[in-house]
Specification:
Strands 1, 2, 3, 4, 5, 6 and 7 form a 7-stranded mixed sheet that branches. This protein is α+β, with helices and mostly antiparallel strands and 251 residues long. The chain starts with a helix and ends in an 8-residue tail after the last helix. It has 8 helices and 7 strands; from the N terminus they run αββββαβαααααββα. Helices cover 55% and strands 16% of the residues.
């Protein structure tokens, strides 16, 4: 075979090999795109499910407000109550605070309809959340829980001792008392007790809420609401509870 012909054949063979390799790569890419498309669909479905209100009725909770020792807002005589389980490093908790909490406070808490209780549920993978919960509880000892809570959520990327100290100073707290409280294992134990209590109720993420009627210091068969739900969702649950007759589970 002439040299020119052999060269032409070699080039043709190389082109065919490259085309074959490209076809194989395209085939693999199509397979990968199909897998990615399936994964995106799964993620989309999970996201939609997480946005849907998840309601679950729990058993009646005795002494749900810790004899008034827990951080709370509203009138003691309110016929309804919300118990919040939150994490200071949780972006969904921040979203709830920014979009829903203020409206609940204005329309239900401040009007004497709802007593609001705050409990801690720092998630294990949020390394600063437990320390922030301790700082908030130390502010509670000096009557400054809610303004401290606001500062912590507004500065969640800066959670740490420096923020706790500067916030305590801005709130005119007794700094010696605050410093001792941060090291008090009893305060940390309270946070741990909240985690244990929430876990016993089936709570796995934040924010989560117990919503129910109040009678004789008990929260009757509360609804467990999970996630940063809209104000409208909370209002619907509260209004439904307010209109419903009191009925214990099993009746």
């Amino acid at each position: 075979m002439p040299v020119k012909q052999r060269h032409k054949t070699a080039i043709q063979s190389k082109v065919e090999q490259e085309l074959s390799a490209l076809k194989q790569e395209v085939s693999e890419l199509k397979k990968q795109l199909a897998i990615i498309g399936s994964q995106v669909k799964d993620i989309h479905n999970i996201a939609l499910d997480s946005q849907r209100p998840q309601h679950k009725t729990l058993t009646t909770q005795e002494n749900f407000d810790g004899d008034g020792a827990l951080a709370n807002l509203g009138e003691a005589t309110a016929g309804l109550a919300i118990v919040e389980f939150s994490d200071y490093q949780c972006p969904y908790c921040k979203r709830y605070i920014d979009t829903t909490f203020t409206k609940l406070k204005t329309n239900f808490i401040d009007k004497g309809k709802v007593k609001y209780i705050a409990r801690d549920f720092p998630l294990a993978f949020h390394k600063q959340a437990k320390g922030a919960a301790v700082a908030a509880n130390c502010s509670l000892q000096q009557g400054a829980y809610w303004p401290m809570r606001e500062r912590l959520f507004n500065n969640m990327r800066q959670l740490g001792d420096e923020l706790y100290q500067s916030s305590a100073e801005q709130l005119s707290l007794d700094m010696d008392q605050f410093a001792k409280c941060l090291e008090d294992e009893k305060v940390l134990a309270k946070v741990e007790q909240d985690i244990t209590y929430g876990s016993s109720l089936g709570i796995r993420g934040t924010p989560s809420f117990l919503i129910g009627k109040v009678e004789d210091g008990r929260l009757l068969n509360p609804t467990l609401l999970v996630g940063a739900q809209s104000y409208e969702t909370f209002a619907a649950v509260l209004n439904e509870l307010a209109a419903a007759p009191v009925q214990e589970a099993g009746e």
